[in-house]
Write a structure and sequence with these properties.
Elements lengths: L1 E5 L6 E7 L5 H9 L5 E4 L2 E4 L15 E8 L4 E5 L11 H4 L7 E7 L2 E4 H9 L1
Parallel strand pairs: 1-5
Antiparallel strand pairs: 2-5, 3-4, 6-7, 7-8
Length: about 120
Amino acid sequence: SLKVERSVDGKTTLNTIFKSRGIAFETALKNAQNIHYDFLQNGAALNFSPVVQIPKGTNWRAQQVELILNIPVGTEIQIDNDFHNFLNDYNYWNCNHERDSEFSSWVMTEAGFRCKFEESSKIEK
């Protein structure tokens, strides 16, 4: 999952949290430590893998990766339509006002992460 939050220091950062279950804390910790997750930064673009990799022969114990992207106020980002399943707490489909577009536009405001289209329509009123 991906959460986008306002940066408190004006810098863009990406935090990764690995989660898992286990019969005991130590087992859950080991399961979480064995998670492998890839993302690639190419200039200003971040490309996230759609899958979490766990070692062959490892049992499924609800392993998860939570990404927290902190961005400064005023930062605009484009989110690929195929990525909507990984976004939590955002009304993604209502933002994509251009149905032919592969991306939707978002902006970080003082009030939080908002659809750029929604923010621009508020300004016009």
